[in-house]
Amino acid sequence: MTLLLSRSQPELVSCTATVLHSGADEKGHYFVTAETVFYPQGGGQMSDVGSVTHNGESFAVKQVLMNAGEARHYLADVQGAPEEGEEVRLEIDAAFRQRASVAHTAGHLISHVVETLMPSLIPAKGHHFLPGSYVEFSGNSTLSAEQLLEQVREKVHQAIDANLPVTTGTLSFDEIARLRPELAGAIPQNEEIRTVTIGGFLPFACGGTHAASTGALQGLELRKIKVKDRVKISYETA
Predict the structure, then answer these.
(1) E strands, the chain, where?
(2) Residue 193 pairs with which residues in a beta bridge?
(3) Long-range Cβ contact pairs of 32-35 (< 8 A, separation 24 or more)
(4) How far apart are CA 172 and CA 82, in angstroms?
(5) Residues 6+ apart with CB under 8 A from 13
(6) Which pLDDT does position 184 carry in this prediction?
(7) Banded model confidence at residue 98, pLDDT cuts 50, 70, 90
(8) Is the pTM here over 0.90, yes or no?
(9) Which of residues 49 and 189 earns the better pLDDT score?
């Protein structure tokens, strides 16, 4: 198992760790450590990128993915693979992490605004990758697509200007299911569930990284809305 420091200490940009083992799969050559500062791809958020340093040399880490509870750090160069038992230094690209965090927070904020304006729309998917970020909702709107988008834009920009705090916490499954019964079926029934809360909006189950406040979302643009089987809002961050 790999301890994910990004969940409890998202401000960390580096750490030392011991290599548990290494290997290769269809994604390339990887190594696994006992703990990592890297955020592994998941929850609609792309993984961190960065470097691993050992034996006095640094090598690029191009992606991190979870597999059976272990974080696999994929290398850009197979020659950079550290050995089992070796202590290494892991360091993320802090600017890339910040952009990913802002994109993730933006997706949450848009979802909160939509479900507040139109309770019949239920958050169904968040894709916070850069570029190509979007959020999707199931259900139907009583407004036209363009009317809904315009109202969401206005409320989102108000929330950004208000510089609302973004905080993390934990709730039991029963607690969050009571708060969000419409999403209970999509939430893992763990004893403790990590949550993210923006201002006075309802908490949302999430293991990702986020901006410290909505003020960091200045420049967010809601580009378009598409209504078919679901309502899809695409957005870009500055």
Answers:
(1) 3-4, 14-25, 28-33, 35-36, 50-54, 57-67, 70-75, 87-92, 122-127, 133-138, 166-171, 193-198, 204-205, 221-227, 231-236
(2) 171
(3) 32/2, 32/70, 32/71, 32/72, 32/73, 33/2, 33/71, 33/73, 33/88, 33/90, 34/2, 34/3, 35/2, 35/3, 35/4, 35/5
(4) 38
(5) 37, 91, 92, 94, 97
(6) 83
(7) very high
(8) yes
(9) 49
Label residue 35 by pLDDT band (50, 70, 90): very high
Q: Which residues of 165-193 are buried (b: 16+ CB within 10 A; e: fewer)?
A: ebebeebebeebbeebeebeeeeeeeeeb
Domains, the chain, ranges and CATH? 3-92 (2.40.30.130), 97-236 (3.30.980.10)
Q: Which of 148, 69, 140 is nearest to 113 (CA)?
A: 148
List the beta bridge partners of residue 31.
22, 73
pLDDT, one tens digit per residue, over 69-82 is: 999 999 998 887 89
pLDDT (0 to 100) of residue 120: 96
**For the chain, counts of helices (H) and of strands (E):** 4, 15
Residue 79 tokens read as 């020659």
> How confident is the model at residue 119, as a pLDDT?
95
